[in-house]
Amino acid sequence: MNIYKKLSEVRVELQGSKLHKSGENKFAKFKYFELDDLLPTINRLNKDKGLVTIFNIKDDIAKLTIIDADSEAKIEFEVPTAEANMKGMQEIQKLGSQITYMRRYLLFIAYEITEKDTVDAIDNTKIEEQKKEVKPLAQSKIKALYTLASKKGYDSEGVKNIIKKKYKIDSTKELTLEQFTIMIKGFEGMKDKEE
């Protein structure tokens, strides 16, 4: 049996197996395959057919090579790499994430594993609404705003009037954190009120 027939059989058997998605994106509310969900089944099926996978990254190209252990025939799958850049990650963590993502995506391609298109499935209007959602500010932040305003010579009524006129908001309790930050900067930039 040649390598293409072996790979074809592994793909069909893989599709018939019950792969479980253990990864979860809680923000966008979808599940996805982790390497742990794929590798045990792929490795078992490959072993049964005499196939081996080798992963490599070189010159910004990630490559997965499937080798037939009997004939040493090869099939290669390649994709350009992309950085996994998340806030607060150290360089070694970024590298590890990049390797994990690239391996996973190459396995999807090589073994024709499908997932719903999570990027298209995400309702971006809901994400934007969540960002704009007004949440009550902590009392400490409201107090800080009034303390700063009082140092500039404004009493609580003066603060409320500025909020109402400049920001078209009736109460500090309706402020988003972004609005609050803008207002704090605004009060910091104000000249002291003349008596």
Give an overview of the whole structure.
It contains 8 helices and 5 strands. With 195 residues, it is an alpha+beta fold. The protein has 2 domains: 120 residues, no CATH class; 51 residues, no CATH class. The strands form 2 sheets. It has a 3-stranded antiparallel sheet with strand order 3-4-5. A two-stranded antiparallel sheet has the order 1-2. Helix 6 packs parallel to helix 8. 11% of the residues are buried.
Give me some keywords for this one.
single chain, 195 residues, alpha+beta, 8 helices, 51% helix, elongated
List the helices and strands and how they pair.
Elements: H1 3-16, E1 23-25, E2 30-32, H2 35-49, E3 51-58, E4 61-68, E5 74-80, H3 91-110, H4 118-121, H5 124-132, H6 139-151, H7 156-167, H8 177-189
Antiparallel strand pairs: 1-2, 3-4, 4-5
Helix pairs in contact: 1-2, 6-8
